[in-house]
Amino acid sequence: MWTRLWSTPADACFIQRDEPADVEYGGSRKLQGLARVLDDARILREFENDDLAAFRALNSGLRRHGDSAPAVEQAAALAALIELSAALEQPDRVAEWDTRLRQLSLTGEERRRVESAVADPTPLDRWMPPSDG
């Protein structure tokens, strides 16, 4: 069991005694393949603010693990790459990723999961395949 002590700007002190002993900072070691790449890219984007490193990780990870990954993971990686391409002003491969994304078959739940993986899912509407159910 861990004890974490921290203070707030109001100088109040908090103690948390129930933090799990197996806290994983920097991504889950339990994930494999494209799922792990997606988790690593999320950390690079959200915590390290490094869109270029996230872009490179996703691009490489999709090439390496994309064919064996479930459709929902492929779609999440493609959606993130499309989003990052806009942020990095690198639209060169968007058409290729667009084609791949449209070819995937996703359920309604999987589509929602992919949409929740990007900051703004609105631009994805033109690329996302219709859900199967």
Describe this structure in words.
By secondary structure, this protein is mainly alpha-helical. The protein has one domain (28-126): Serine Threonine Protein Phosphatase 5, Tetratricopeptide repeat (Alpha Horseshoe). The chain contains five helices and two strands. A hairpin with a 5-residue loop joins strand 1 (2-7) and strand 2 (13-19). Helix 3 (71-87) runs parallel beside helix 5 (108-116). The chain is globular and about 40 Å long. 25% of the residues are buried. The mean pLDDT is 82.
Structural class: mainly alpha
Low-confidence stretches: none
Sheet with most strands: 2 strands, antiparallel
Mean pLDDT: 82
What's the arrangement of strands in the largest beta sheet?
Answer: 1-2
CATH architectural arrangement: Alpha Horseshoe
Helicity level, as a percent range? 40-55%
How is this fold's topology laid out?
Blueprint: E1 2-7, E2 13-19, H1 33-46, H2 51-65, H3 71-87, H4 94-103, H5 108-116
Antiparallel strand pairs: 1-2
Descriptors for this entry?
two-stranded antiparallel sheet; single chain; 10% strand; 133 residues; Serine Threonine Protein Phosphatase 5, Tetratricopeptide repeat; globular; 49% helix; 5 helices; 2 strands; mainly alpha
